[in-house]
Amino acid sequence: MLKNIEWKENDVYSLKLRDDLYTLVQMRKNYMMQFFDISSETDDWPGLDLNTCETLFFRFVAPKGLKGIFSRKIPISEVVVSHGPIQRKMLIMDLDDAPNYGARLVELPEDYNSINAKVLTGKLTVGSDLDVIYRYELDGSEGNPNKLLKRLIRYFETGINWDDSKNFLFKDVPLPPPYYGRS
Predict the structure, then answer these.
(1) CB within 10 Å: which end of the chain, N or C, has fewer?
(2) pLDDT value at position 95?
(3) CB under 8 Å to 53, separation ≥6 — which residues?
(4) Which long-range contacts (CB under 8 A, 24 or more apart) does 6-10 make?
(5) Backbone phi and psi for residue 9, each to the nearest 5 degrees, phi listed first
């Protein structure tokens, strides 16, 4: 495990999910990290072109909080970094109507700062907007390694890509089907 993580755009790291399960992530802009739909039983990635890998999700992260699951920094000689577009649509929490919380769909500006995000929808509901709720990530920063480990392990074991934080905003929302939203 790495002791320190320095944020540098396009750096690629291996995450150790458990002793026999690793995946790769790439640092993008403004503490946005790209998570890939790729896993391995070993921490070896020679010659991998991340442009050919599906993106599992983009998420703002607090790297210092997650440093315990970073296995190693991948040398640029081992992988080709992703140059694909960063997802700019995200869900922003709507906590105004307690206890009936929810979210709105927003589009981040080019600096990827959610403070200046353009609101695209009104408050989302499970009954009408389930596709949007499943498809887009929350804009908050993830710094809890256990939540991230649980999510990634569940995905690689079952194909279900779901951020359990959404359960707080959308009561009784069912889990998405396996591999939902993959092209």
Answers:
(1) C
(2) 83
(3) 24, 36, 37, 38, 82
(4) 7/31, 7/63, 10/81
(5) -50, 135
Q: Tokens standing for 30?
A: 């403004």
At 3 the three-state DSSP class reads coil
The tens digit of pLDDT for each residue in 108-120 reads 999 998 888 999 9
Instruction: Report the alpha-carbon distance of residue 180 to residue 144 in Å, rounded.
Output: 24
Can you give the pLDDT at residue 25?
Answer: 97
Helices and strands (DSSP H and E) totals, the chain: 4, 10
Cβ–Cβ < 8 Å for 152, 35 = yes
Token couple for 172: 């009784």
Task: For residue 103, list its beta bridge partners.
Answer: 93
The whole model's pTM is what? 0.93
Write down the residue that tokens 């495990």 correspond to.
1
What b/e string do you get for 47-56 counting C-beta neighbours within 10 Å, with b at 16 or more?
Answer: ebebeebebb
- Considering only CA atoms, give the Rg of the chain: 16
Phi and psi (nearest 5°) for 39? -145, 165
Give mean pLDDT, residues 75-90: 96
Rounded to an integer, what distance in angstroms lies between the CA atom of residue 74 and that of residue 11?
Answer: 8
In degrees and rounded to multiples of 5, residue 114 shows phi and psi of -70, -15
Kindly state the tokens that stand for 111. 């600096």
